[in-house]
Amino acid sequence: MPAPDLLTAELTLTGRITTASNATFLATIGDTTVVYKPIAGEKPLWDFPDGFLAHREVAAYLVSEVLGWNVVPRTWLRDGPLGQGMVQLWQQTDPDQNAVDLVAADDIPETGWKQVLEGQDETGRMVALIHEDTPELRRMAVFDVVVNNADRKGDHILAMPDGHRHGVDHGLTFHRDHKLRTVLWGWLGDALSAEELEGIDRVIEGLDGELGQSLADLISAEEIASLVARCARLRMTRRFPAPRGGMPAVPWPLF
User: Fold this and answer.
1) pTM for the full model?
2) Going by fewer Cβ within 10 Å, which terminus of the chain is more open, N or C?
């Protein structure tokens, strides 16, 4: 849980993030910089009509914590100048690092990267979508499968100076139907590591206890049942899943 002052001290708006699709603000709580997304600023979505996106963001953080991989920065619900919303600790990224990139199709690095797809840009040049081949990003890809992330864009991956990778913008998660849309398909079909399987086991165990109780206040019983089923399927197959169904496998735009 956040420190008590982060829950109760005054939240002051300092700016607006205009590239976000929903109302998203930079704010401070004392000396701490945060992101604030008021529920009042959420836009209705045809495929996520039930519940609030802010609650899904907090639910994603709780699952991240049980996995033990620090994928999602600390996130909580609280009141602010525009009403109740999601609040998340701001992360200062390294502008010289990119975990996901678009490169010329004939310029893909030989090592350290995974190719996801290839296509043409607006000039007709062949380009490839690639992402890092690192344990940090693999764990994020597992997390996305667990929470059924429908919107893992490249810019939703924060490259930290120490090499860690945070994932943000988890409002489109936990749908009861398969909705996985991500740029992190590079490990498709690969076996999950022992560490990754242990993380999934922690979620399965937590769903029978404190995690399950906390999620019940944030998402529906049907969505929790689907979460249980996804974890069980991952544990049984022990592999990164492939895209399925008629929906796109990647979000648009990609970044």
Assistant:
1) 0.95
2) N
